[in-house]
Design goal:
The protein is mainly alpha-helical. It is built from four helices and no strands.
Protein backbone atom coordinates (compact mmCIF):
# COMPACT_ATOMS: atom_id res chain seq x y z
CA UNK A 1 0.00 0.00 0.00
CA UNK A 2 1.47 3.39 -0.99
CA UNK A 3 2.36 5.91 1.70
CA UNK A 4 -0.35 8.38 0.63
CA UNK A 5 -3.03 5.71 1.04
CA UNK A 6 -1.71 4.76 4.47
CA UNK A 7 -1.73 8.42 5.53
CA UNK A 8 -5.27 8.89 4.17
CA UNK A 9 -6.43 5.79 6.06
CA UNK A 10 -4.88 7.03 9.32
CA UNK A 11 -6.33 10.54 8.95
CA UNK A 12 -9.77 9.09 8.12
CA UNK A 13 -9.56 6.74 11.11
CA UNK A 14 -8.66 9.62 13.45
CA UNK A 15 -11.45 11.79 12.05
CA UNK A 16 -13.95 8.98 12.61
CA UNK A 17 -12.58 8.30 16.10
CA UNK A 18 -12.86 11.96 17.16
CA UNK A 19 -16.40 12.06 15.77
CA UNK A 20 -17.39 8.89 17.63
CA UNK A 21 -15.93 10.19 20.90
CA UNK A 22 -17.67 13.57 20.70
CA UNK A 23 -21.07 12.64 19.30
CA UNK A 24 -21.12 9.22 20.96
CA UNK A 25 -20.31 10.85 24.28
CA UNK A 26 -23.19 13.30 23.85
CA UNK A 27 -25.65 10.57 22.95
CA UNK A 28 -24.52 8.37 25.84
CA UNK A 29 -24.67 11.25 28.30
CA UNK A 30 -28.06 12.54 27.16
CA UNK A 31 -29.90 9.29 26.53
CA UNK A 32 -28.36 6.98 29.15
CA UNK A 33 -26.32 8.60 31.92
CA UNK A 34 -28.45 11.67 32.71
CA UNK A 35 -31.81 9.84 32.80
CA UNK A 36 -30.30 6.97 34.82
CA UNK A 37 -28.70 9.33 37.34
CA UNK A 38 -31.98 11.21 37.78
CA UNK A 39 -33.90 7.95 38.21
CA UNK A 40 -31.51 6.50 40.80
CA UNK A 41 -30.43 9.65 42.65
CA UNK A 42 -33.38 11.99 42.04
CA UNK A 43 -32.98 15.66 41.23
CA UNK A 44 -30.87 16.52 44.29
CA UNK A 45 -27.32 17.75 44.77
CA UNK A 46 -25.86 14.24 44.37
CA UNK A 47 -27.10 14.08 40.78
CA UNK A 48 -25.62 17.49 40.05
CA UNK A 49 -22.31 16.46 41.63
CA UNK A 50 -22.18 13.26 39.58
CA UNK A 51 -23.10 15.03 36.34
CA UNK A 52 -20.53 17.78 36.98
CA UNK A 53 -17.81 15.16 37.49
CA UNK A 54 -18.79 13.33 34.30
CA UNK A 55 -19.05 16.60 32.37
CA UNK A 56 -15.59 17.66 33.55
CA UNK A 57 -14.01 14.42 32.32
CA UNK A 58 -15.93 14.46 29.05
CA UNK A 59 -14.97 18.09 28.38
CA UNK A 60 -11.31 17.11 28.01
CA UNK A 61 -12.25 14.45 25.44
CA UNK A 62 -14.48 16.93 23.62
CA UNK A 63 -11.75 19.57 23.40
CA UNK A 64 -9.24 17.03 22.08
CA UNK A 65 -11.86 15.79 19.60
CA UNK A 66 -12.65 19.32 18.38
CA UNK A 67 -8.97 20.04 17.76
CA UNK A 68 -8.48 16.66 16.11
CA UNK A 69 -11.56 17.09 13.92
CA UNK A 70 -10.42 20.51 12.74
CA UNK A 71 -6.99 19.21 11.78
CA UNK A 72 -8.12 15.95 10.17
CA UNK A 73 -11.08 17.65 8.49
CA UNK A 74 -8.78 20.13 6.75
CA UNK A 75 -6.54 17.30 5.58
CA UNK A 76 -9.50 15.26 4.30
CA UNK A 77 -11.35 18.07 2.53
CA UNK A 78 -8.34 19.11 0.46
CA UNK A 79 -8.07 15.56 -0.89
CA UNK A 80 -11.33 15.74 -2.86
CA UNK A 81 -11.23 17.53 -6.24
CA UNK A 82 -14.86 18.67 -5.78
CA UNK A 83 -13.84 20.72 -2.73
CA UNK A 84 -14.00 24.41 -3.67
CA UNK A 85 -12.99 25.93 -0.36
CA UNK A 86 -14.27 26.37 3.16
CA UNK A 87 -17.91 27.53 3.21
CA UNK A 88 -18.19 27.38 -0.59
CA UNK A 89 -21.57 26.61 -2.14
CA UNK A 90 -20.25 26.17 -5.70
CA UNK A 91 -21.28 22.53 -6.19
CA UNK A 92 -23.34 19.93 -4.31
CA UNK A 93 -20.30 18.44 -2.54
CA UNK A 94 -19.04 21.82 -1.32
CA UNK A 95 -22.57 22.88 -0.32
CA UNK A 96 -23.07 19.79 1.86
CA UNK A 97 -19.62 20.26 3.36
CA UNK A 98 -20.31 23.95 4.07
CA UNK A 99 -23.61 23.09 5.80
CA UNK A 100 -21.80 20.44 7.82
CA UNK A 101 -19.17 22.98 8.89
CA UNK A 102 -21.83 25.50 9.94
CA UNK A 103 -23.40 22.82 12.15
CA UNK A 104 -19.98 21.88 13.56
CA UNK A 105 -19.37 25.53 14.51
CA UNK A 106 -22.79 25.60 16.20
CA UNK A 107 -21.89 22.42 18.12
CA UNK A 108 -18.59 23.92 19.23
CA UNK A 109 -20.34 27.09 20.41
CA UNK A 110 -22.94 25.11 22.37
CA UNK A 111 -20.25 22.85 23.89
CA UNK A 112 -18.15 25.82 24.97
CA UNK A 113 -21.17 27.63 26.40
CA UNK A 114 -22.26 24.56 28.37
CA UNK A 115 -18.80 23.86 29.79
CA UNK A 116 -17.29 27.33 30.17
CA UNK A 117 -20.35 29.41 31.08
CA UNK A 118 -22.96 27.08 32.59
CA UNK A 119 -20.43 24.61 34.02
CA UNK A 120 -18.30 27.21 35.79
CA UNK A 121 -20.98 29.11 37.66
CA UNK A 122 -20.31 29.20 41.37
CA UNK A 123 -22.90 28.15 43.88
CA UNK A 124 -25.89 25.92 43.34
CA UNK A 125 -27.48 26.08 39.92
CA UNK A 126 -31.09 27.03 39.50
CA UNK A 127 -33.67 24.70 37.95
CA UNK A 128 -33.79 27.01 34.92
CA UNK A 129 -30.01 26.68 34.46
CA UNK A 130 -30.28 22.89 34.72
CA UNK A 131 -33.10 22.88 32.18
CA UNK A 132 -31.08 25.11 29.82
CA UNK A 133 -28.04 22.85 30.12
CA UNK A 134 -30.09 19.72 29.42
CA UNK A 135 -31.83 21.43 26.50
CA UNK A 136 -28.49 22.45 25.01
CA UNK A 137 -27.20 18.91 25.46
CA UNK A 138 -30.13 17.53 23.45
CA UNK A 139 -29.76 20.30 20.87
CA UNK A 140 -26.12 19.27 20.42
CA UNK A 141 -27.19 15.63 20.02
CA UNK A 142 -29.53 16.69 17.21
CA UNK A 143 -26.77 18.75 15.60
CA UNK A 144 -24.37 15.81 15.89
CA UNK A 145 -26.79 13.41 14.21
CA UNK A 146 -27.43 15.96 11.44
CA UNK A 147 -23.65 16.26 10.93
CA UNK A 148 -23.38 12.48 10.60
CA UNK A 149 -26.16 12.53 7.99
CA UNK A 150 -24.41 15.30 6.05
CA UNK A 151 -21.15 13.33 6.30
CA UNK A 152 -22.86 10.41 4.61
CA UNK A 153 -24.06 12.69 1.82
CA UNK A 154 -20.61 14.26 1.42
CA UNK A 155 -19.00 10.84 1.05
CA UNK A 156 -21.66 9.81 -1.49
CA UNK A 157 -21.24 13.05 -3.46
CA UNK A 158 -17.46 12.98 -3.25
CA UNK A 159 -17.14 9.44 -4.52
CA UNK A 160 -19.81 9.56 -7.22
CA UNK A 161 -18.78 10.28 -10.81
CA UNK A 162 -19.95 13.74 -12.00
CA UNK A 163 -23.41 13.71 -13.56
Amino acid sequence: MPGKQIMFAIVTFLHDLFTAVWIGGLITLGLTVLPSAKKVLGMGPQTKKLMDAIQKRLSVLVYVSIAGLLLTGLLLSNRNPAFQGLFSFGNPYSTVLALKHVLVLAMIAVSLYRSLILGRRSGPSTPSQEKLSAGLLFFNIILGVAILLLSGFSVALGSAPPA
